[in-house]
Amino acid sequence: MSDSPSAVPTLGAKIAAEAFGTFLLVFGGVGTALFASNHFTDPGANSAVYVAVALAFGLTVVVGAYAFGPISGGHFNPAVTLGAAAAGRISWRDVGPYIIAQVIGGVVASTALVLIGTFGPDGWLSGAQDAGFASNGWGEHSPGGFGMFAAITVEIILTAFFLFVILGTTHAKRGTPFAGLAIGLTLTLIHLISIPVDNTSVNPARSIAAAIYGGVGPLSQLWVFLVFPVVGAMIAGFAYKALFDATAKQPKQL
């Protein structure tokens, strides 16, 4: 690999990669929830639906990580970007542009899903929107009827867990070339755990993208999925830097 300046992606390239990667994540994950299952449009739960949606989110991250990760780091998630900055992996000055690109990419993806639904069967789009458009939520908007504090707790814990895996597998010295696969499988596991609780966020951009088409209920609960994934990510970022990136002092040579 060349160390020339031309080999370093520009900020423009990075934010474009983040926008495309987040588009892929939302289009693939939320799209699967909406098109490949009836869980978010009809009453009832089906374990196969959970597995399909969990795999869809995980696979989009695997694909996106290998396609766009070498350019931008492959965050596709404002919480990941903030956690990476807390851990010293990216500059704080890049955080704003990354997050803007991620939100735009997610909103464009959900808008594309609405456009597709416009040409779907009669009543499909209105039914999907009345059911929340695969948005995150608690109480009556939780698949399992879990309350707000369950959603808060699971978002903090699982986002922190996600960041620990990301920071560990992408470490400059201790990382692995299979980081994208490990991260994608981790996101799959996270969805298997928490879809019944709150439809799984761990990603404010994903939550915004779905909620803007999900109606008043999801929008009124959106703040939880903006705040608490970030809380979990920041905790993990600062903790990883303190616990695992500290270097031991070498003894003085006599």
Topology:
Elements: H1 11-35, H2 47-72, H3 78-86, H4 95-118, H5 124-130, H6 148-169, H7 179-198, H8 204-211, H9 216-244
Helix pairs in contact: 1-2, 1-4, 1-8, 2-7, 3-4, 3-6, 3-9, 4-8, 6-7, 6-9, 8-9
Structure description:
By secondary structure, the chain is mainly alpha-helical. It has a single domain, classed as Up-down Bundle (Glycerol uptake facilitator protein), CATH 1.20.1080.10. Helices cover 67% and strands 0% of the residues. Helix 8 runs antiparallel to helix 9. It is globular and about 80 Å long.
Features:
MIP, transmembrane, Aquaporin, disordered N terminus, 254 residues, single chain, Glycerol uptake facilitator protein, transmembrane helix, transport, mainly alpha
Q: Gist?
A:
This protein is mainly alpha-helical and 254 residues long.
Provide mean pLDDT, rounded: 91
Number of helices: 9
**Low-confidence parts, pLDDT < 50 over ≥5 residues?**
1-5
Q: Roughly what fraction of the amino acids lie in strands?
A: under 5%
What is the CATH architecture descriptor?
Up-down Bundle
Taking the sheet with the most strands, its summary is:
none
Number of strands: 0
CATH topology: Glycerol uptake facilitator protein
Oligomer: single chain
Number of domains: 1
Specify the overall morphology.
globular
What is the CATH class name? Mainly Alpha
Termini separation comes to: 40 Å
